[in-house]
Amino acid sequence: MTPQNNLSSEKNIQKELTYIQKVWHTVAIVALLVVVILIARVAFNVLLMVLAGVLVSVYFHGLGDIIQRKTNWRRRICMIISVGGTFIILVSLFWLMGATISKQIAVLSDTLPHTINTAKAKLGETPIGQKILDYLSDDNSDTLMTTAKSFFNTSFGVLGDIYIILFLAIFFTSNPNLYKDGMIKLFPESRKPLAHQVIDRISHALKGWLKGMMLSMVLVFILLSIGLGIMSIPVALVLALLTGLLKLIPNFGSLAAMIPGVLLALTISTNTAIIVALIYIVTQTVVSNIVTPIIQNKMINLPPALTILAQVLMGTLSGVLGIILAVPLLAIVMILVDELYVKKLSETDIVIVPERSQP
């Protein structure tokens, strides 16, 4: 074999090795990106649970602030009353209403198949209702159920998440300054005042959201209990409680909560179903557009379209927990953008005034 042939064969071997190295480099980069995305998704879910724990801690401290202002007692005593009183009230409510609610849940589960069949019969009497039934009777129903299951089970291990959130809330409540000062220490000395300002503003926004949300849930529960009770709707207490809990999910929660109530009313008569739907709509409208804005006056104004987009995005990424925390998370992001970008941009803007021409 001539030296030229040896040289060309060595070059071919070197090209093949270079190509194989490039392939393996590409595979390694893709694998690394996949691992980073998976870690980021898990870390994001952990951050959501941290935010949920912060919200519970903000609730305890907000209630402690109210007790301290009214009584002038020591802070530790007020916090013990805040945490202990909350758990006592919850246990008392479950003890007083638990038997009634459990009976109504059993009745609802027993009558649900009959309710669905009756609703189908009522819908089949109208052309539009028949089209809806035709749509749901095809493979679309299976697709909808599969989508719903995957949507609500994405990352929402109920017991596990609640367990972690409660422990985080206890730690945040017991010594909040430890975590707040720890975050501020991460910033340089010149940025510490800005960090204090941002944290305080976020705290006020979260308190405003919590106040509005909790009062909205209670008012929706009371108003719907009265309205559905007047209409003699079965399991009115359970329906009102479900609607109050789903108030945690703006926009979509109200629509989802109205479906079982209207279906049950449809088993009585079509007019009753229309009246019940109006009760739901009026209650949600009054609470959402009058009561909640008054209570949440300390929270920044969030555009409705941006809120819906945030809910859809968070629901896709993190399931129900993401939907519930979409609004406070969006508020935090907007505060950070306002404090760290918008205000800095307005401070650095230089207005150039044109010189007047000399006569």
UniProtKB/TrEMBL annotation:
Pfam entry (one): AI-2E_transport
Key word Hydrolase present: no
Keywords linked to the UniProt accession: Membrane, Transmembrane, Transmembrane helix
Transmembrane segments: 23-40, 46-64, 76-97, 151-173, 217-242, 248-266, 273-296, 308-337
Compartments it resides in: Membrane
Database matches in InterPro entries: AI-2E-like (IPR002549)
Predominant location: membrane
Membrane topology reported for the UniProt record: Multi-pass membrane protein
Family the entry assigns: Belongs to the autoinducer-2 exporter (AI-2E) (TC 2.A.86) family.
PANTHER family: TRANSMEMBRANE PROTEIN, TRANSPORT PROTEIN YDBI-RELATED
Protein name stated in the entry: AI-2E family transporter
Organism expressing this protein natively: Mucilaginibacter dorajii
Lineage, top ranks: Bacteria, Pseudomonadati, Bacteroidota, Sphingobacteriia, Sphingobacteriales
